[in-house]
Amino acid sequence: MPNAGAPTYLSALFEAALKARAHAHAPYSRFPVGAAVRSASGAIYGGCNVENAAYPSGICAETAAIAAMVCAGEREIAAILVLGEGEEPLTPCGACRQRILEFSGPQTRIYCGGASGPGEALTMAELLPHAFGPGRLGRTAP
Ligand code: THU
Fold first, then answer.
1. What is the extent of the structural domain holding 100?
2. Minimal-distance CA residue to ligand 1 atom 1
3. Residue 4 lies in a domain
4. Is 120 helix (H, G, I), strand (E, B) or coil?
5. Could you tell me the pLDDT band of residue 138, with boundaries at 50, 70 and 90?
6. What lines the ligand 1 site, CB under 6 Å?
7. For residue 85, which of 91, 98, 111, 138 sits 20 to 30 Å off, Cα-Cα?
């Protein structure tokens, strides 16, 4: 469970990721993943991995959660929690780090969760140093 200094929304974010993970379609890897995004508005969007018989066509849980946020008209990730089933905290894959970056800022918290809870928050700079982000194209994100 979240520790004392954790933000108040963390339990809800964890519950949303758990709920999303329960719907994962992962018959090939047998590695269900859930993700939950908290947007700037405070809304929470869940996503799970959705695998495919044509393996590369599958998508990650973070991708699904971010797509749900964007589809709702939002563009700013305040926090995201990624949750596997193992004890080890599940860190986002490289491609998903890039996808998170697109909608994040220095304040964005990235929780890498596991069996024992949501884990500690990391920053985008920790997960993807020297990144190529929207700023490199003269754009301000988000
Ligand atoms: N997976 C995610 O959903 N997110 C990640 O950040 C890591 C990997 C999924 C993809 C695939 O369905 C399964 O986990 C095994 O790689």
1. 10-137
2. 60
3. no
4. coil
5. confident
6. 26, 29, 31, 33, 49, 51, 58, 60-62, 82, 92-93, 96
7. 98
H-run or E-run covering 35:
strand 34-39
* C-alpha of residue 138 to centroid of ligand 1, in Å: 31
Q: Which pLDDT score, from 0 to 100, does residue 6 have?
A: 84
In a domain? residue 39: yes
Instruction: Tell me how far apart the alpha carbons of residues 21 and 4 are, in angstroms, rounded to a whole number.
Output: 25
Amino acid identity, position 32: P
Mutate which of 28, 29, 66, 127 for ligand 1 pocket (most atoms within 8 A of beta carbon) = 29
Say what angle helices 61-71 and 94-102 make with each other, to 10 degrees: 20
Residue 2, in any domain of the structure: no
Which pLDDT band holds residue 91 (cuts at 50, 70, 90)? Answer: very high
> pLDDT (tens digit, 9 = 90+) per residue, 76-89?
999 999 999 999 99
Which has the closest alpha carbon to 37: 3, 68, 5?
68
Per the structure, how many domains does the chain have?
1
Instruction: With respect to residue 81, please indicate whether it lies within any of the assigned structural domains.
Output: yes
Which ligand 1 atom is nearest residue 29's CA? 15
